[in-house]
User: Fold this.
Amino acid sequence: MSAEITVLDRLLEITVLLQQDLARSFEATGLTLARTHLLWELRRLGPSPQQSLATALKVSARNITGLVDALEATGFVSRGPHPTDRRATLVALTELGARTMSAMEVEHAQLSEQLVAGLSESHVAQLAAGLEAVAERLRTLVESSGSEAAAKANQRAQS
Amino acid sequence: MSAEITVLDRLLEITVLLQQDLARSFEATGLTLARTHLLWELRRLGPSPQQSLATALKVSARNITGLVDALEATGFVSRGPHPTDRRATLVALTELGARTMSAMEVEHAQLSEQLVAGLSESHVAQLAAGLEAVAERLRTLVESSGSEAAAKANQRAQS
DNA sequence: TATTGTTATACTCTATAACTATA
DNA sequence: TATAGTTATAGAGTATAACAATA
Assistant:
């Protein structure tokens, strides 16, 4: 019983620590978490209309406008015309943006190794499997909450 | 090599999912993450001066003023005089605040169980041990970055 | 009519600096 | 002099709603 609580508590602790570590690695570039997240997706997707980024980041279109404004002003991305849709703009990584993301990818790989340094192959495999199981349960919870959220809110509002 | 990457990537995914799930559970109460965090600490510490809360949450005193303002306006906490130091105010949970935190504690326990539901006792124990190892490495990284951060920033600024 | 992106507006979290009242 | 909390100011992230240009 207390063992289960420990897993969640450890995950919450790790959540905080990971964010601190990521924030530290951004400091040197002047980037923030939200802006880096956008760059990271852009590297994965290639040049994209803002609408695609809004969907990928699960964030409003207005929010993307602001993030791209800031990233454009600091030289990490550029806006260009969409080849076929004149309503849309294509956001692309600049050379600086691409270089920054490459460096971040290296740091990501280093952190991956450091996190499990000293653990045996089999322990790492077990850990990965356990995390996959936890992630699967969380995915189910979050997805199902989409439909339950409204019902719950109504329930409590009436009580 | 790719196994290590999987552990970090899983943790990052879980980080996002956990925050979504927590946000969902706040929705019903009208609380936000930052305000709930304050209430959670208050429940642990008991009635506290704002300065103690600033230290516990690792956040500026100004920030605490804003959070307590909002929580006071919505009835979750109350401000009272400090018995011996007339400069300080004592922040305490109201009956609503205490009731809300009790409910949240129950949800926390339920989530703990759901996360590892279906896993055997020994798997859960292994998972907890693996997470403890990862957390330990992260703690070391974040602590050491405190002194390294300045040096790294200088390095990159010069290159 | 529907979609893309922007302007307008607003709220939350966060920080630093200056100031007041007390220690 | 130092500390607790507030006011003043600022910036980042987020959201909804109204609007223009284009599909």
Notes: Residues 121-158 of chain A form the longest helix (38 residues). Residues 49-51, 61-62, 64-65, 82, 85-89 of chain A lie near DNA strand C (CB under 10 Å from a C1'). Residues 149-159 of chain A have pLDDT under 50 and may be disordered.
